């Protein structure tokens, strides 16, 4: 059961009773998503580019997706977005998040009307955006596609440690192109070691409010 809860910046998140954790930071869902995935991730990855392919781990409410879609539209960047989700939310729950307030009505409508089909196959939302939400666990996910950036947005290591095991991180990183980027809100010694072992160069960046640091890592050319 997921319960809608307000966070410190006024934006909502969901509290997942089974896992015992929120989908976003209690200090601000919107500001965390913008800080970690848009500012430190997407802006960095799209510098000088006109196309980007994103692999997200944990689609959840789609907040990272709609903010990415809006950024790409505003900057004339084609977005190919794949987001793995083991436990998809219903369209009703997504409509209750209030996130329609943070993007244009066109983007929100393109998202919500294609959401359920995107759980089955890749959908073209606009000339600028394709979305697919494979309904599977990360460990069972496979594709021939390679991505420019991974948004690693799993529940925290305290609540879902298996999502942060060395094997799981290595599995996710297989789907990145050479020089691809891995970005997440968390930073631990174990995560840094796992990424280094997979040929990444690690950067520590200031975290979103409530977190001192976050992690961005770039995969070696190969
Ligand atoms: C922190 S939330 C993601 C928040 C999301 N990015 C958003 O903007 O709302 C973690 C997500 O991972 C999903 N999840 C849990 N276990 C998973 C697994 N084994 N594989 C893929 N997704 C999983 C959860 O259902 C949840 O939606």
From TrEMBL:
Domain MnmC-like methyltransferase residues, every copy: 138-219
Molecular function terms, GO-annotated: oxidoreductase activity, acting on the CH-NH group of donors; tRNA (5-methylaminomethyl-2-thiouridylate)(34)-methyltransferase activity
Pfam families the UniProt entry points to: Methyltransf_30
Key words, A-Z: Methyltransferase, Transferase
SUPFAM superfamilies the record matches: S-adenosyl-L-methionine-dependent methyltransferases
Any GO BP: methylation
InterPro entries: MnmC-like_methylTransf (IPR008471), SAM-dependent_MTases_sf (IPR029063), tRNA_MNMC2 (IPR047785)
Name of protein: tRNA (5-methylaminomethyl-2-thiouridylate)-methyltransferase
